[in-house]
Design goal:
Among the domains are: 112 residues, Rossmann fold (3-Layer(aba) Sandwich); 43 residues, no CATH class. By secondary structure, the chain is α/β, with parallel strands linked by helices. The chain is built from 9 helices and 10 strands. A 6-stranded mixed sheet has the order 6-7-8-3-9-10, sandwiched between helices. Helix 3 runs parallel beside helix 5 and helix 4 crosses helix 5. A hairpin with a 2-residue loop joins strand 1 and strand 2. The longest helix is centred in the last third of the chain and has 18 residues. Helix content is 40%, strand content 24%. The structure holds adenosine-5'-diphosphate (ADP) and magnesium ion. The site of magnesium ion has 4 residues, from helix 1. Adenosine-5'-diphosphate (ADP) binds next to helix 1.
Amino acid sequence: MIKVRDLKKSFYNQTVLDGLDLDIEEGKITVIIGKSGAGKSVLLKNIIGLLKPDSGSIMFYDKDITKVSYEELKKIRLNFGVLFQDAALFDSYNVFNNVAFPLIERKIVKSRKQAEKIVKETLKLVELEGIENKMPSELSGGMKKRVGLARAIVTKPKIIFFDEPTTGLDPITSMSIACLIKDMQTKLKTTCFIISHDLALTFKIADNIGFLHNGKIIEFGDKNTIINSQNPIVREFLESYFAGEKND
Ligand SMILES: Nc1ncnc2c1ncn2[C@@H]1O[C@H](COP(=O)(O)OP(=O)(O)O)[C@@H](O)[C@H]1O
Ligand SMILES: [Mg+2]
């Protein structure tokens, strides 16, 4: 669905992405892992067109996201759902208005009644029925993530981008969010692109895993490919994870 080729992005004299290649397969869950500061968020922002790369191409089907006009980019973005790290709910809007926002902004619904029906169905998918009138301040961290997820899927995007979907959540809530993403992906057949440093989530739900280091994807494949990687950087990352698991 998306092919990234030779992507380069620097800030001042700091090179963050240095000739990165990546394929995002349609209907699959692709997770990008790597150390904090490796450039995972920068990669995601380039793909959704929030940052402009210095060079390289990002093909969404037959269109290069880095070369299209702003009008065309806006059209392409209608296929995208995004869930940012902090869920980014509007604090002064209740859950209904938060989830309905993209439906109204993109003029997908014709009436309040239609919006209510879609929001209700979407909240059911994230296992949060009947909380339309609650305010974000009344919700737990896990519930906020679910509302954010509901808002990301409400327009039925072709692909959903997640930046650290489980950061700040306890391990049990993290696992329930991971399972929810997997269930939703199975039900809706949505392509998912996730960046994460959470290996438990990654190994639980990823079809494809890419390891980002020094501006490139240095290892790519399924769980077994990553676990059996002989790359010393990948091994070091895995060993610190498995050591942490033993200490729990
Ligand atoms: N808008 C920006 N301006 C300058 N530097 C940035 C910007 N965004 C990210 N960076 C730098 O790029 C590097 C990668 O950041 P990021 O993609 O957020 O890492 P990760 O998500 O892997 O933790 C960091 O060193 C960060 O300081
Ligand atoms: Mg990040």
